[in-house]
Design a protein that fits this description.
Structural class: alpha/beta
Number of helices: 43
Oligomer: single chain
Largest sheet: 7 strands, mixed
Strand content: 15-25%
Distance between the termini: 53 Å
C-alpha cells in the first residue's frame, strides 16, 4: 500500500511544494512568498507557512509534521487538524471538495499521521465533481462563518455517503468515571492523559459553536490545550467566543516543545505554559531558487562600478527577512534615511567649535565626494581621523559609517514572478512614488503575441504596461530593455538608472525566464538561450516589446531615446512620408514631363501583356483539359519542377496554371472544387513536415471532413508527387519521415472525396538519377490520364541555368540594382539583382527567427543585407578597425564577424542603409567588390607573427594577386560610389579575364607558409605554399581542386582537398593563378551549378589533362614540387615576439563574433585598443585576431587594456580554442540548423566530457556549419557537424589535425543527446589507446572507427552515413 504522502500526491489537481525536507512525488517546486495558483494544492511545513500569502484562492495548504496549529490570515478559509493517516486523507479530499465552493483550507497534519497507509476513496475525481447535498436549517443569506460551516458539513455528509466514514468537527475520548473538566485539544497530536475527558478538535476554524456548547455541557471547567508562548492562544479566544454567555471557567495551557501537560493541568493559573518555546520560523537562504536565466541581468547589475545592493537578494537575507519587494522597499527607506542622518551628522560635527583639524579636513573632503566613487575611500580616511569619537555626534557618525554608509550604494529591488512577486504591485508603487533614489528591475517572462507558443496573457499581468505608469509620474527614470536584443542597451539603462538621483524602473524582457534550460515551453520546444533569443526578436521586431530609455535628468531633446530598430525605422519612414506629403501640397506641383510619358508607356505595355495572357488562356481552354499544379518548396527544387511541368503541359495543349499550396489555403474547398484536375508537388522540411509555404493548406485539409465538403469535389481528380531522401533518416524509427508530406496528403485528398488522377509518385535522392528516376514514369502516367500522351512535343534542350542568363544580361553586373535600391515599397530587391549584388560583396537575407511570425501577420520577411569586405591577407589599420566598428553601429546590427576568409562581415543592414554602408567601407580605403559571386574572392594568407619579414612578402603577393584578378567593370563605382558611366561604357567595361559570363562558380585562393596551415590551403580552388630557403621566399608549390561545398545525400557532390601540380617562381605565381582560372572559366560546368566548382572540372578532365591545359595557357611547365611540412592549422594564442623586436598578441574571439555580450566585451575593448594601437590588426582564417607590431614601449599599455576588458583570457579548453562555426541562423538563407549560436553551448558540454578524462588542454579541431556549403571548413575537421534540420546534424570524424585529410561521414543525423552519448566512450577509448601525441582524427582511423578518406571521390565510400 502507498504511504500517506504518495496517496495525497495522486489526488486530482495541480500540486506544489515549498522547499521542505519531505519529498512530494509529482509536485512542482514553489518558492516561498509566492502566491499559490488558484484551485491548487500546496505542501509546506511550519517553517514556510508564514510565507503563504493571505489570499490562497480556493486552494488547499497541507502543513506537514506540525507541532503547532497557527490561525489562518485568510478569514475565508477552514482550518483542519489531522492526527491519523486516515483522518489526514479524509480531510484532504474534503478540502478539495470545499475548494469547489471557492473556500481554501489550511490542513495541519501531525507527525504521527505521516506514517501509515489510509484507505482511499475509489473514483475520487467522480466524487469531487458530484453535486453536494443540500442541508436544512441554514440561512439563505449566511455570514462568512456560517458559509464555511455549511460547506464543511455538506462535504462531510457527501464523504460519509461515499465512504461510510463519519467526518466530525471533533472527536471525544470519554473517561470513566466522567471527570469534572473537559480538555479541548487543538494540538496536532493526542497527548496521553489518563482520567481526563479529552476532546480532539478537528475543525479548528470556524469552531462549531453549538456543537462545542453541547459537548462541554455538564462540565465545571474547560481547559483549552494549544501550542504557543504568547499572552494567550487564538484557540482559547475562539472557545471563549463560542461559549459566550456561559458560566464555565475557561483556562488556557500553552504547550511548547516537549511539554509536561500533566503538570500544567494540576496548576490553577488561568494561563499555564509548559515546555520550551517553539523555534521561530527560519527560511534557509538556499531554499529560494532563482532561475538561472535571470543571471543574464543580475550579472550585469553586479558589474556596476559603484557599490551595489540588491535589497531582496535571497543570498544576503537573514532568516527573518523576506524577498517581498514591499519588504525590500522598507529596507531601502531605512538605508536612505540612515545615510541622510550620516550627512547631517557630518555637517553638525563640522560646525562644532571643538572639532579637531584632521577630522574637519577629512569630513569636508568626504562631503565633497559623498555621492561619487571616491566616497568609500574618503570615508575610510574620515573614520581613521575620528578615532573612537570625542563627542556624541562623532560616535553616532562612526556607528553609521561602520554600517557601510560612507559610500552611497546603488539600491536595487528585483521583481520576479519566480521568487519575488510584487502582490498588487504595492512595492513598486511605493518605491516609484517615494522620490527616493531606488531602482527596480522588473522581469517580463511572457512570450509575445507573435509567438507560435504564446498562451493568452491577462492584461493585468503584463509587465510592459508598468512603463506607462512610471512615465506618467514624470520624475521616474524608465527604460524597457531586452538582453537578447541589445546587450549594450541593458548596460546603458542600468548605469543611467543608477546615476539618476531618483527612482528608476528597468523593465527587462526575458521570455520563459521562469523556466530552467531544457524545460518544455510547448509544442516540442524547450527553454534555452536560442529559444529565448528567437522569442525576443519576435517581440522586439513586432513592436510588442519596445526598447527605450526615458531620463528626466537629461538635456531637453535627449530625454527620450528609442532603441527599438524596427520602430525607429518605421518612425523614420513615417517622417519621410510626412515630409514628402508636405512637398506635394504645393498649389502647382512641378512634375517632370518624362514622368507622365514613361508611366503612359508602361500602362500601354501592361495592357498588351494582359491581353496576350487572356488570348493564350482562351486558346488553351478551347479543347485542352485543365490542370492546376500546386507546389510546396523550401529549397526551390519542387518549385522548379512544378514550373517545368506547367510549361510541358501547355505544350501538350493542357490549360495549366501554377499556384503555391498556401495560395489556396483560405478557400481550399472552393478553389479545388472549381478544378477538374489538380497535381500537388511537395518537398520535405524538418521532421517530416510540409515546407513553410505549404503548412497552412496542410492544416486546413486536416480540419476538413467529407461531410463538410459534400459534393464539391465529386469531379476533382488529383495526384501527388513527393520529393525526399530515403537515406536522410537512417534509423528505422525515423523512416516514417521519408516523403511524409506526400504520403499523408494523397490519401487525405482521396478520403475527402477526390478521385485518383495518377498514382502517388515518390522521388528519392538516393535513386540513380535522383528524384528523376521516379518522376519520369509519374509524369508519363499523368499525360496518359489527361489523354495527351500521344501528342508529339519536341522538348526544348535543357537551358543554361538562370545565373548564366542573369550574368549575360546584366551589362557587366549592373542589372537593375540602382532601381531596386530606390524602390521603398519593399525591403527586398529583385531575384536577379539579388544574384548580381553578390559580385558587389553583399547578399540579401532575412531574419529567419521571425519569418513565420511576420508571415502570420501578413507582412513581408524582415529583409536585410550582409556585406562582406575584400581585405586580402586579412590586414587592416586601427583606423580601419574603428571605421568597421562605426559601420556596425550606424548601419548594421551593432556586431560584425571575422570570417574564415580573413575579412569583415556585417549583418542586419536594411536596404536604406546598404549604400551608405558601402560608401563608408570605401571611405576607410577598403572595398567589397568580388568578396562574393562567381569571381576570384578574398585571397587568404598565413599570418605568422614570428616571421614578420616572410609575412610581408606573402601578404604583398596575396594583395597583388587579388588586385590583378579583380573584375574590371565600373558598375561597382557607379552604383555604390555615385561615379558616372563614361560614354562608350561598353568598351570601358570589357572584361579581358572574365568575359561577360565571369566564372562558372566561386573561386577561392590562399597562400600558406609552412609549418602553419591556418588558412587550410588544401580546401581552396588554388593554393600557394611558400617555400622558404635561407630566410627568403624562393617560390610556391601550387595546389588545385580544393573545395568544401556539398549537397546532402547527393553523392555526385563531395568535398575535395587540392592536388599538388608543381612549383613556380615568385615572379610567375600570379600568371599561374590566372592560367588556372582561365582553364576553369572555359571548361567549368555552366549547366549544373552544383557541379561547377574547379574540383569537379579537374575530376572530369583528370588531373594530368587539366595540368596540361593550364601549362598551355601558362606558357611553361611547372617545376617539380619542393618539400615542405605542415605541423598546425590552429592559431598560436598569446604574446610572441618577432625578429624585428615588435610584439604580437593573438586573442581568442569565439566564432569571430565581435560584440559585447554577457560572455565577452570584445567590441568595446577592441574599440578602445584601436584608439591607441599603432600597428595592425590581422585577422586569422580561424576567425581570431592578432594585434600585430606592438612596440616594446607600447606593450604595457596594450596589456593593461587587454586585462581591463578581459581580452587576455586564454584560459579556455583546447577544444574551444580549436573550434569554429559559420553564421547560420538567423540570417543565412541556406542554413538548415543552428551553428554560431549553438556551438559554444555544445562545446560547454563536450569539453566537460574531456575534462572528466583529464584532457582539457588537448586540442581537437571541431567545426560546425548550418548547411553543407562548408563555410567553416567542417569537411576536414577531426570532429564535424553539418546541419540537416533544426537540432539535427550529419556527424563526421577523422579529418587531419593539420588540415591534410578529409573527414568521413559517420552518423547521418544526430541530436545533442546522441552527440554526447557517442563522444563520451570515444574519448575514453582514445585516451586509453592513443599513441604519444596522436591526434584524435588519426586515432579514429587507426582504431577502425571510420575509414580514411583518401580523396574527395571516395568521401562517401565505406560509410552508411549521408
Amino acid at each position: 500500500m502507498s504511504s500517506l504522502l504518495e496517496t495525497l500526491a495522486t489526488l486530482p489537481g495541480a500540486s506544489y511544494t515549498h522547499p521542505i525536507s519531505t519529498s512530494i512525488p509529482s509536485s512542482s517546486k514553489l518558492n516561498p512568498y509566492l502566491p499559490l495558483p488558484s484551485t491548487s494544492t500546496l505542501f509546506t511545513d511550519s517553517s514556510f507557512l508564514h510565507t503563504v500569502p493571505a489570499n490562497t484562492s480556493s486552494s488547499v495548504v497541507h502543513v506537514l509534521g506540525s507541532e503547532s496549529v497557527i490561525s489562518s490570515r485568510d478569514k475565508d478559509s477552514l482550518v483542519l487538524i489531522s492526527r491519523t493517516p486516515q483522518e489526514a486523507y479524509d480531510h484532504s479530499v474534503l478540502a478539495l471538495k470545499v475548494a469547489k465552493s471557492g473556500i481554501s483550507t489550511f490542513h495541519f497534519v501531525g507527525s504521527a499521521a505521516l506514517s501509515g497507509s489510509p484507505t482511499i476513496l475509489p473514483n475520487v475525481e467522480e466524487w469531487l465533481e458530484s453535486s453536494t447535498p443540500a442541508l436544512n436549517g441554514h440561512s439563505s443569506d449566511p455570514d462568512a462563518e456560517e458559509r464555511l460551516n455549511s460547506a464543511y458539513e455538506a462535504a462531510a455528509l457527501s464523504l460519509l455517503k461515499a465512504t461510510r466514514r463519519a467526518q466530525r468537527p471533533f472527536v471525544t475520548h470519554d473517561s470513566n468515571p466522567k471527570p469534572s473538566r473537559a480538555i479541548l485539544n487543538f494540538l496536532p497530536y493526542t497527548p496521553e492523559l489518563s482520567g481526563e475527558q479529552l476532546i480532539d478538535i478537528s475543525l479548528a476554524s470556524p469552531l462549531p459553536r453549538d456543537k462545542v456548547r453541547h459537548a462541554v455541557k455538564g462540565f465545571s471547567e474547560i481547559i483549552v490545550l494549544e501550542s504557543g508562548s504568547g499572552k494567550y492562544g487564538p484557540a482559547w479566544a475562539s472557545v471563549v467566543d463560542a461559549l459566550e454567555g456561559s458560566d464555565y471557567p475557561i483556562r488556557s495551557i500553552l504547550a511548547g516543545s516537549n511539554p509536561d501537560i500533566a503538570s500544567a493541568l494540576s496548576s490553577s493559573a488561568p494561563v499555564s505554559r509548559t515546555g520550551s518555546p517553539l523555534p521561530s520560523p527560519s527560511i534557509p537562504k538556499t531554499s529560494i531558487t532563482i532561475p538561472s536565466a535571470e543571471s543574464k541581468y543580475t550579472d550585469l547589475l553586479a558589474s556596476s562600478p559603484s557599490p551595489l545592493e540588491i535589497l531582496n537578494d535571497p543570498a544576503s537575507l537573514s532568516a527573518s527577512e523576506s524577498t517581498s519587494p514591499l519588504y525590500a522597499f522598507g529596507k531601502a527607506v531605512a538605508i536612505r534615511r540612515e545615510r541622510e542622518q550620516l550627512v547631517e551628522l557630518a555637517k553638525s560635527v563640522l560646525k562644532a567649535p571643538n572639532t579637531r583639524t584632521e577630522v574637519h579636513e577629512a569630513l569636508s573632503q568626504w562631503l565633497l565626494v559623498r555621492d561619487e566613487a571616491a566616497s568609500s575611500q574618503a570615508g575610510e580616511k574620515a573614520e581613521k581621523a575620528l578615532g573612537e569619537g570625542s563627542s556624541a555626534d562623532e560616535k553616532s557618525l562612526l556607528e553609521l559609517g561602520r554600517k557601510g554608509h560612507w559610500a552611497k550604494k546603488n539600491l536595487w529591488i528585483v521583481i520576479s514572478n519566480s521568487w519575488a512577486q510584487d502582490l498588487a504591485s504595492s512595492g513598486l508603487h511605493h518605491a516609484l512614488a517615494s522620490g527616493l533614489d531606488i531602482n527596480l528591475l522588473v522581469y517580463e517572462t511572457a512570450s509575445s503575441p507573435f509567438s507560435p507558443l504564446a498562451p493568452p496573457q491577462p492584461s493585468r499581468e503584463r509587465k510592459k504596461d508598468l512603463a506607462l505608469y512610471a512615465l506618467n509620474m514624470g520624475d521616474v527614470y524608465t527604460s524597457s530593455v531586452a538582453v537578447y536584443a541589445d546587450f549594450a542597451g541593458v548596460i546603458n539603462a542600468m548605469r543611467e538608472a543608477e546615476a539618476y538621483p531618483g527612482p528608476g524602473l528597468v523593465l527587462a524582457y526575458l521570455p520563459w525566464g521562469d523556466k530552467e534550460d531544457g524545460q518544455s515551453v510547448g509544442q516540442g520546444e524547450v527553454a534555452g538561450p536560442l529559444e529565448r533569443l528567437r522569442e525576443t526578436k519576435r517581440a522586439v521586431s513586432g513592436g510588442w516589446w519596445p526598447m527605450f530609455r526615458w531620463n528626466p535628468a537629461a538635456q531637453d531633446g535627449k530625454q527620450f531615446i528609442l532603441d527599438s530598430p524596427a520602430i525607429k525605422t518605421a518612425l523614420s519612414q513615417f517622417l519621410d512620408r510626412q515630409s514628402h506629403l508636405s512637398q506635394l501640397t504645393r498649389a502647382s506641383p512641378a512634375i517632370d514631363a518624362s514622368v507622365t510619358s514613361s508611366k503612359g508607356t508602361e500602362l500601354v505595355a501592361a495592357r498588351k501583356e494582359k491581353a496576350k495572357r487572356a488570348y493564350d488562356a482562351l486558346l488553351n481552354s478551347l479543347d485542352g483539359p485543365g490542370l492546376l499544379v500546386l507546389y510546396a518548396s523550401d529549397g526551390g527544387t519542387a518549385e522548379k519542377v512544378s514550373k517545368r511541368l506547367v510549361s510541358r503541359a501547355k505544350m501538350r495543349g493542357v490549360n495549366a496554371t501554377l499556384q503555391v499550396f498556401d495560395g489556396i489555403a483560405a478557400n481550399a474547398v472552393e478553389a479545388l472544387g472549381a478544378e477538374k484536375n489538380a497535381v500537388f508537388i511537395t518537398a520535405v522540411a524538418g521532421q517530416g513536415e510540409s515546407p513553410l509555404n505549404g503548412r497552412e493548406l496542410t492544416k486546413k485539409l486536416g480540419t476538413l471532413s467529407a461531410d463538410s465538403i459534400g459534393e464539391s469535389w465529386k469531379d476533382l481528380k488529383v495526384s501527388v508527387f513527393g520529393m525526399g531522401d530515403s537515406n536522410y533518416w537512417p534509423r528505422k524509427e525515423d523512416y516514417i519521415y521519408y516523403n511524409k508530406p506526400a504520403k499523408d496528403l494523397f490519401p487525405r485528398l482521396l478520403s475527402l472525396g477526390a478521385s485518383e488522377l495518377a498514382p502517388l509518385g515518390l522521388g528519392d535522392d538516393q535513386d540513380p538519377d535522383g528524384y528523376m528516376t521516379a518522376y519520369k514514369p509519374w509524369e508519363a502516367s499523368l499525360w496518359r490520364a489527361l489523354g495527351v500522351d500521344a501528342v508529339e512535343v519536341v522538348e526544348a534542350q535543357e537551358e543554361v541555368v538562370a545565373n548564366e542568363h542573369i550574368k549575360i544580361a546584366s551589362d557587366y553586373l549592373r542589372g537593375t540594382i540602382l532601381e531596386g535600391l530606390a524602390d521603398q515599397s519593399t525591403g527586398a530587391i529583385g531575384p536577379s539583382d539579388a544574384q548580381l549584388t553578390k559580385f558587389h560583396g553583399t547578399y540579401m537575407q532575412d531574419d529567419r527567427d521571425i519569418r513565420e511570425s511576420l508571415t502570420a501577420q501578413g507582412l513581408e520577411p524582415a529583409y536585410s543585407f550582409m556585406i562582406r569586405c575584400r581585405m586580402p591577407g586579412g590586414v587592416c589599420t586601427p583606423e580601419q578597425w574603428l571605421a568597421m566598428d562605426r559601420i556596425a553601429d550606424e548601419h548594421g546590427n551593432s556586431t560584425f564577424k571575422l570570417t574564415t576568409r580573413q575579412t569583415f562581415q556585417f549583418h542586419g543592414i536594411i536596404k536604406k542603409h546598404l549604400k551608405p554602408a558601402m560608401q563608408a567601407i570605401n571611405k576607410s580605403l577598403l572595398d567589397t567588390i568580388a568578396a562574393c559571386g562567381d569571381v576570384n574572392r578574398n585571397v587568404q594568407c598565413t599570418v605568422n607573427p614570428a616571421l614578420s619579414h616572410i609575412h610581408q612578402t606573402v601578404y604583398d603577393f596575396s594583395k597583388n594577386m587579388s588586385e590583378y584578378l579583380l573584375p574590371k567593370t565600373s558598375a561597382y563605382h557607379e552604383i555604390w560610389l555615385d561615379k558616372k558611366q563614361v560614354a562608350g561604357g561598353e568598351v570601358a567595361d570589357l572584361e579581358p579575364l572574365y568575359g561577360p559570363t565571369y566564372l562558372p562558380r566561386k573561386f577561392k585562393m590562399a597562400v600558406a607558409v609552412p609549418p602553419d596551415n591556418g588558412v587550410d590551403v588544401f580546401t581552396n580552388d588554388v593554393g600557394f605554399i611558400a617555400i622558404v630557403e635561407n630566410d627568403k621566399v624562393v617560390g610556391y608549390n601550387v595546389t588545385v581542386g580544393g573545395g568544401m561545398g556539398v549537397t546532402h545525400s547527393n553523392k555526385k557532390t563531395y568535398p575535395r582537398l587540392g592536388d599538388l601540380i608543381g612549383f613556380v617562381l615568385p615572379e610567375d605565381a600570379i600568371k599561374a593563378a590566372e592560367s588556372i582560372m582561365i582553364v576553369q572559366r572555359d571548361n567549368g560546368n555552366r549547366q549544373d551549378r552544383k557541379n561547377a566548382r574547379l574540383k569537379y572540372t579537374i575530376d572530369r578532365m583528370t588531373l594530368p589533362i587539366f595540368k596540361k591545359e593550364v601549362e598551355a595557357v601558362f606558357g611553361k611547365s611547372f617545376q617539380p614540387v619542393r618539400p615542405f611540412e605542415f605541423t598546425t592549422n590552429i592559431d598560436n594564442y598569446g604574446w610572441v615576439q618577432g625578429r624585428d623586436g615588435n610584439w604580437h598578441f593573438t586573442m581568442f574571439i569565439e566564432n569571430g563574433r565581435v560584440e559585447d555580450s554577457s560572455r565577452n566585451q570584445f567590441k568595446s575593448g577592441l574599440r578602445e585598443i584601436a584608439t591607441v594601437h599603432k600597428g595592425q590588426f590581422r585577422l586569422t582564417a580561424n576567425q581570431h585576431l592578432i594585434l600585430a607590431n606592438v612596440t616594446p614601449e607600447d606593450k604595457p599599455e596594450i596589456e593593461r587594456l587587454l586585462k581591463k576588458w578581459g581580452l587576455d583570457n586564454l584560459n579556455h579548453s583546447g577544444l574551444r580554442l580549436s573550434s569554429s562555426a559559420c553564421v547560420a541562423f538567423p540570417t543565412c538563407g541556406l542554413a538548415m540548423a543552428e551553428s554560431e549560436r549553438y556551438l559554444p553551448l555544445l562545446v560547454d558540454k563536450v569539453e566537460k566530457l574531456l575534462e572528466d578524462e583529464g584532457m582539457r588542454s588537448d586540442s581537437i579541431v571541431m567545426r560546425m556549419t548550418g548547411c553543407p556549403n562548408g563555410c567553416a571548413r567542417p569537411w576536414n575537421a577531426e570532429i564535424a557537424f553539418v546541419g540537416k534540420a533544426p537540432g539535427s546534424y550529419l556527424m563526421m570524424l577523422g579529418g587531419g589535425h593539420h588540415g591534410e585529410r578529409l573527414s568521413k561521414p559517420w552518423k547521418s543525423s544526430v541530436t545533442e543527446p546522441e552527440i554526447l552519448a557517442l563522444l563520451k566512450p570515444l574519448f575514453k577509448q582514445w585516451i586509453a589507446e592513443r599513441n604519444d601525441g596522436e591526434p584524435f582524427g588519426d586515432w579514429v582511423i587507426r582504431a577502425g572507427i571510420i575509414k580514411a578518406t583518401t580523396h574527395g571521390t571516395n568521401f562517401w565510400a565505406e560509410t552508411d552515413a549521408s
